[in-house]
Structure to design on (171 residues):
């Protein structure tokens, strides 16, 4: 299993049976490959501050991978006004490596700001609105809304308020 964790707020403590241990801070992404087996635990690193995160589980392209993890920081400025790849199966500069044909993008938009993504034929997408309000191809979405896109084509995403999204492009 490929486990992709994106911390939105606070800090998440991680430790595992390979000796990996650390803190995942807000704006950081961690990919953990469970592969042939790994025991791990995650918990709020603070006793007083909340932690808010997204965690996505993806089947790897092939079984039996060696357990591993990778972690990277993405600043608000890097995420602002663009679709920033944070985890990908292909070699995209700066993105953590995922062992599957998938790309995870994040974006922070202000009111009136727009990003576009073109889904190639045979590709699908999943969009989750983390915060704020957006317009997706003429449909208004609010925080917590999610959309599954089952056919290729153009996605036009406009911020109606300050907002943050995650868009996953997959086969």
């Amino acid at each position: 299993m490929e486990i992709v964790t994106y911390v939105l707020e606070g800090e998440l403590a991680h430790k595992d049976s390979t000796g990996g241990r650390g803190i995942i801070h807000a704006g950081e992404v961690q990919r953990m490959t469970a592969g042939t087996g790994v025991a791990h635990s995650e918990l709020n690193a603070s006793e007083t501050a909340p932690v808010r995160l997204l965690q996505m589980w993806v089947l790897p392209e092939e079984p039996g991978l060696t357990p591993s993890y990778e972690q990277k920081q993405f600043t608000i400025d890097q995420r602002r006004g663009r679709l920033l790849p944070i985890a990908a199966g292909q070699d995209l500069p700066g993105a953590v490596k995922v062992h599957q044909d998938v790309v995870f993008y994040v974006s922070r938009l202000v009111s009136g700001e727009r990003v576009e993504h073109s889904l190639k034929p045979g590709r699908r997408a999943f969009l989750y609105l983390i915060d704020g309000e957006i317009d997706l191809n003429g449909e208004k979405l609010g925080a917590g809304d999610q959309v599954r896109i089952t056919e290729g084509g153009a996605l036009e995403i406009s911020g109606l308020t300050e907002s943050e999204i995650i868009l996953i492009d997959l086969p």
The longest helix spans residues 76-79.
